[in-house]
Design goal:
74 residues, 2 domains, 3 helices, 0% strand, elongated
């Protein structure tokens, strides 16, 4: 059970890191980021969400990603 919590914590951290990078691309110095780079970040978020689903279920994984995105990017 501890390993599962560690994986969830790791994935949450990675999701937050990706969201932070997206925030920089959308509003920071890198505001002119290329479309393919932004798409790659969204794809990465999707991959982390899918991995997270194996530990917490589909609905909770979606909620975690949305909450993190809204907190960090918006």
């Amino acid at each position: 059970m501890g390993e599962c919590r560690s994986e969830v914590a790791r994935l949450r951290e990675q999701i937050e890191t990706v969201c932070g990078a997206m925030n920089q691309m959308l509003s920071g110095y890198a505001i002119t980021s290329r479309h393919d780079i932004i798409n790659h970040r969204y794809s990465t978020l999707g991959s982390y969400q899918e991995e997270l689903e194996t530990f917490v279920g589909e609905q909770q994984a979606l909620e975690i990603v949305i909450e993190t995105y809204n907190r960090v990017v918006r």
